[in-house]
Specification:
The chain has helices at residues 7-23, 28-35, 39-51, 67-90, 95-105, 111-120, 167-175, 208-213, 261-269, 303-306, and strands at residues 55-58, 62-65, 146-147, 155-162, 183-188, 195-199, 202-206, 214-222, 235-237, 246-252, 277-283, 290-294, 297-301, 309-313. 35% of the residues lie in helices and 24% in strands. It has 10 helices and 14 strands. 33% of the residues are buried. It is elongated. The chain folds into 3 domains: 7-65, Orthogonal Bundle (Arc Repressor Mutant, subunit A), CATH 1.10.10; 146-222, Roll (SH3 type barrels); 230-313, SH3 type barrels, CATH 2.30.30.90. The protein is an alpha+beta fold.
Length: 314
């Protein structure tokens, strides 16, 4: 009779697998964060798992799964991701809430039950977040992707998956439209963020934390933009323009919803609407205010407000 691993064993092996995928090896300090336990508990459990032949531990480096441990971990991940699919596709649970519930189901849904779920769902290949679902025999196909944070300016791609399972962060990611199969174009890069990106045609700013966990499949080649009309030129935040430079407003960050919608309404009330010409009169240094000319009217915007105005330079 096959011995069923304990829930704690499955949790640890699953954590090791995920950290291996992300970092190449699972460091005990990262396991502490992921599992939300004290360091001593991780150390003791790893020693136990190593004795059972499920992991190999190299002191001062980290932990890796053995073939036996990998088989168990992939089984847990298979059940977890199929559970997420069941929750989102059939029960219509939001994708940022599904993970937490699936963490409980993954230990109980086994054998014929999980096979039946897979059949009812018509054998999905990925979870709602785009991560591949292992087969019953433990095979898994990982698509070659890169982090959104690694994209260069003008590079395009399609979002493949989201390597994040925290519900609050997933909700923010969802609100920005960063979901699998969405098209993406990097407009402005940054070493620390935020990044200015176009997601399914809508401009938005993305933090470094979010950009790091969103994986993209490049579409191949850069977007070469012809210098023919203002709407086709490269798009910049208003703060990128120097004194005397002009632009046509293309978008306002937040005009399509979200926490910045109120700020956009104030900008639009001042006449800063898409299609309007704007000239920078004086841009103060050290993140100071920006004086602009709009329809023969001088306006002064705080730096934060000015960064919400995205323009095509004339």
């Amino acid at each position: 009779m096959e011995v069923v691993p304990t829930e704690a064993t499955e949790e640890y092996l699953e954590a090791v697998y995920k950290l291996q995928q992300r970092d190449g090896i699972a460091r005990t300090s990262e396991m502490v964060k992921l599992l939300n336990v004290v360091p001593g508990t991780v150390t003791n459990t790893i020693e136990k798992l190593e004795k059972e032949g499920l992991v190999s531990h190299v002191p001062y480096k980290g932990v890796k799964l053995t073939e036996k441990g990998s088989k168990i971990a992939l089984g847990v991940i298979r059940r977890h991701r199929l559970s997420e699919r069941l929750l989102t596709d059939v029960l219509h649970v939001s994708w940022y809430e599904a993970h937490k519930i699936a963490c409980k189901l993954e230990h109980d849904l086994r054998g014929d039950v999980i096979r039946k779920i897979e059949e009812v769902l018509r054998e999905p290949k990925t979870c709602p977040h785009g991560n591949p679902i292992p087969t019953e025999t433990g095979e898994i196909i990982e698509e070659e992707t890169t982090s959104m944070a690694n994209l260069k300016e003008n590079e395009k791609g399609v979002i493949s998956k989201v390597m994040e399972e925290d519900g609050r962060l997933l909700k923010r990611i969802s609100e920005q439209g960063l979901v699998p199969k969405a098209s993406i174009e990097m407009i402005r890069t940054s070493t620390r963020g935020p990044f200015l990106v176009k997601i399914s045609g809508v401009l938005t700013e993305v933090t470094l934390k979010i950009a790091s966990v969103v994986k993209v499949k490049k579409s191949g080649g850069k977007n070469v933009i012809p210098d023919t009309s203002c709407s086709e030129k490269r798009i910049f935040p208003l703060t990128a323009l120097r004194n005397g430079e002009c632009g046509i407003i293309i978008d306002l960050l937040g005009m399509h919803g979200g926490s910045t919608k109120g700020s956009c309404r104030r900008l639009m009330d001042m006449g800063l609407v898409p299609g309007t010409k704007v000239t920078v009169v004086k841009s103060a240094p050290f993140r100071g205010p920006v004086e602009i000319l709009v329809r023969d009217t001088h306006l002064v915007l705080g730096r934060g407000m000015a960064e919400r105005v995205h323009v095509a330079m004339l």
